[in-house]
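dumping this here before i forget
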Amino acid sequence: MIDIKNRKIALVGGAGFIGHHLAIELKRKGANVEIIDSPQVNNLLKFAVRTGDKNRDLYYHFINERLNLLRSANIPVHVQDAREYHTLSHLLGQLNPQVIVHLAAVSHAGLSNKDPYSTFDHSVHTLENALDYARAVGNVEQFVYLSSSMVYGHFPQGHVTEETPCAPLGVYGALKYAGEKMVTAYSQVFDMPCTIVRPSALYGERCVSRRVVQIFIENAIRGEEVVVHGDGSDRLDFTYIGDFVQGIVKFIENEKARDEIFNLTYGESRTIGELSDILKAEFPGLKVTFKPKDKLTPDRGTLSVAKARDLIDYEPQFPIDKGLPRYIHWYRTLLETSGRENMRADLGMEDKQERSTSS
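structure:
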């Protein structure tokens, strides 16, 4: 085991959804955390200039709340584009991290297929630069790369382990798999300890990535229909951000995680139909409609987390029956707090709040 207290950790792309949660938890455990981020991809700059998007103001608030939390925790955020090799290397040289966690990416399969150049630029190019810095200095003790369950493509029999052959569909999965190969090659050639992590269907507070759980909740709050692509039988291994972050921390704390690939999910898939049923219990009268499934969406299911359990004692705590109501409660608390009038308007909650007050 490695004492994480005072350990110098750099999060490249760390001001995003996963990164800010991870940074706060690492800081809570005593690590010296520094974030490097150019808030362009699905972040502050994107929503600052975006017009005609009904979610703009809401997500802009979520992102500012992330930054406020980081500021309150005294976690430095260095505004730096990780695509710029020399300036990134210079900054990392100043920080001199013992651990680098690479999170910079376009983290959306649909957007990746629409704009593969940007995805390559922000996902692969940034990874190449971070890896080459680690190779050049030779004293990085662990390089953690966030991959994706999309590297598997279709899940054989609805279940995969880390030994399941990868056959990604589309640009996003292919580039994540390419990233894994790059990390593995650097580890082999330059003897650089690395850990590759494969998450699935992440959800939780202050996400702006429009993942399925977020879309469903926001539509339900607005009183809009929830659209299921497929017949509702498709399965996903829904993973609450709190579980995921605890797993990453354990990877950094345990030498057994080095030079390994891990699935890091809840470890039990649930159907989209089950997800919508939980929402119906929270939002009576919710309308669910079904549309054809995109041909580039793989048939997925459960990612075994037995390896993570055995090697690092990973034990997730949040099935969707527990995590989803928690996430919904966060939305409701946030939107019903005094001073959130604009956000309530964004989600069509003004009338509901007035009725609640009058009653």
